[in-house]
Structures are given as structure tokens and as C-alpha cells.
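Collaborator request, handled under Task 6.
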Amino acid sequence: MPCCFQARPTRRKPVLTMRPDTTRTTPPVRAEFERAPGALGDVGAITRERSRWQRLTDRPAIRRGFILLALAILWQVYASRLHNPLLFPSFTSAMVAWWRALVFGPLLLRAWNSVSTLLIGYGIGIVLALALTTTAVLSRIGEDFLSTLTAMFSPLPAIALLPLALIWFGLGKASIIFVLVHAVLWAVAVNVLAGFVSVSDTLRMAGRNCGLRGWRYVMRILVPAASPAILAGLKVGWMFAWRTEIAAELVFGATSGSGGIGWYIFENQNDLQTAAVFGGLLTVIVIGLLVEGLVFRTIELQTVRKWGMQR
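C-alpha cells returned to the collaborator:
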């Protein structure tokens, strides 16, 4: 029986063939060349030409020395024009009085009394600040507690606590230490907490994944990551403590029976020894420069600068 359905012939699709494009042109080949370096004598000449002045100006100590020299010259010129040693002595007379007080006078002992008292209050303030910031990072209650205390006591000047310090601890070293702790604690705590908060979430999760908790998490993750802020807080705390130390000694400054630099300045002010007063102020400035240039600068170079966290 014949089939009623017949197969239709299929149409074949044309096959597209890729023909080579004869219109394309090959890019031109650039001729190679060789450039010889300059003679070593020219490089050495440039180095010798730059090393006479730029090697000196590249050192921060030399630049700061030039600034101090310029200030000393301005001081001497102004004092010579004013010509009133009682009101404003010259730089040379202040240096002579300062040297005599250091060698033959009590200024060296007074400076040691101030620095030793400062170190005690500064150390206690740093320990308390680290304890409070660590508690604030690890718990919400600690964070609220630190935020409340910081808002309350940070705007309060440390010198305003002198009357209470006199009532509670009497006239002596304990009163000054109490005031120094207040000056250091809140300045360091604010900067350290700001550094802990700014640590990235990646480092935080890495520490959690490694099983770090509590103090180990803070010391191994947060402290290295927040090193620039911590160092800044230590500097600010030092400046606040040093100013508070001198101001407290000016008010009731007898510590350990001999007093500090502030009390030395107050005594010479009563005797109208203006050159000796400037000598005491120079001692305060020199100690501040030494701490900034030797202590904090060395810590900065060995930590945050070396790790590439600060330029």
C-alpha cells in the first residue's frame, strides 16, 4: 500500500568559509637601538654637588637647630633693643644664669624631682587608660562607661583639681601625682580608643578566626594596628602631664622637701631674678625637646615608620 506521506527534500545551509583578508597590513617593526649610560664621573659630580647642602638639610636635627639658632638671635636682638634686664633679659645673660644654676645651683636636683614625679603619674595614667580602653573594646558596658567618663572629665582642667588634691593628699608629691594621672588618663584614653575603633574589620575577623579572645586579641591585633593613634596619644599625654607638672609646682610646688622646676621659677620670680626665671623655662623647654627627639622619635622610627604605617 503506497504511503500518502512523502518526504520533502531538505535544503542544505550554505557553508561560510573564511577567506584570508589580504587587505590587512603588518605593523611596521621599529628599529632597535641601544643607549649607552652616561659616564660615572658625571653621576659622581652631581652627587658631590648635591651633598654639600642637601645632606645637611635632609636631617631633622640640623633643621631644628637652625630654627633654634634663629630664635636665639631674635631673642638677643629684641633684648638689646629693649635694654631692660629686669623685664626681658638677653639670651646670653639667661644662658649664663642657666649654666650657673645647673652647675652650682639647685636646678639639676629640681629638674630630677620634677621628672621623677612626672614619670610616676605618667605611668599610672597610661596603665589606667589601657585598662579602660581594653574594657571598652571587649564589652558594650565598658564602652559606655569610658564614653561617659571621658565626656565628664576630659574637658575638666587638671589644675582645677588642685584644691581637692590639697584636701585629700596634703602638700606633697601625692597631690601632684593625682593631678598628673587626671591629665594623662583621658588624653591617652581618647586617642587609644579612636585607634582601636579605626581597625579594619578584616583584621578583626582574622583575629577571631585564629581564636584570639580577650587580652590576646587586644595585644596581638588591635594594638599593632592602632600603633599610630596610640603613639599620638602618648605624645599628647606627655605634653599635658609636663605642663600640669610645672603649673602644679608653681602653685604648691614643694615635693620631697626641695621642690621642682616650677617651684624654682616661683622662688626666683619672688626675688626678681628674671634671668634665673628664664633659665628655669629653658630647662623645661630642653627637657621637652629631649623627650620628643630622643624617646618618642626613636619609638616612632622603630615602629610605625619602620612598618610603613606612617610617613
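The cover message to the collaborator said: "Residues 40-47 have pLDDT under 50 and may be disordered. Residues 107-138 form the longest helix (32 residues). Please let us know whether this matches your experimental observations."
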